Amino acid sequence: MEETSLLCLLFLISLLSCTTNQARLTVSPSSSQFFKGDFVSLSCEEDDSSAGWTLRRNTSRDTGAECGDHNQEWGEPPGSFCNISYIDPLDSGVYWCESREGPISNMVNLTVTGGSVILQSSVLPVMEGDDVTLLCKTKTTPSNLPAAFYKDGSLIRKQPTGHMTIQHVSRSDEGLYKCDISGHGESPSSWITVTEKHTTTPLPPDPSSLPLVFRVVLHLVVFCPYFISTLLVMSLHQRKTTRNKLCILIPPTHPEHGLDDEHDDVTADVTTEHHF
Asked: Looking at the whole model, is its pTM more than 0.85?
């Protein structure tokens, strides 16, 4: 029973020490909207290349199609990095990274227009408290033309320079945005997601960049808790085994036996006195 408990504990420790490999999809240029004919680069920023990350998408013409697949005819080369040399409105859709083990990355919605106006906004979710800049631009003219910006169909403001900054965004700023440049047209709409800000702990330094003595200390700090816990379990098991052996070696005492001897002595004395 004790050996089974020890094995279970070691198994749980090994599970706790494991980490889940993840990837994040990034888009360059960093925008959720593009003009027809633009060059777009997609990349899986991966924690572990051995996970075998690939780029996939869902559009109006394909579902789950992998970049570089000759049967799907979109992007090149296959793998975790993919270029679309001439993006088309039919390439509008949802893109993500997927590993051969099954996990997927964040999903990015890209919109490609054949029109003359787009709204450049953050393609990734925006953290609460950060500033976000929206840029309304045309394909053939400078990007500093006056533009009107809308959220959920309602006018927010008109900007003479064609860009608007939302300072210290909150969850109430989440919504569907678009812009309009007079005489050129209106952009497609894009959803801006605002995520809750979490307190994060600073990342530990890269062990390979530390001197040898610090790397040794770092490994000791990391593995000592597991080593100590294993020693404690083994020590408790050893103590219990030793205690059981001692109980077997030392015979139990019988106080009743001593009382019977004394009773016999007393009886003998009484008998002797009777003969006198």
From this structure: no
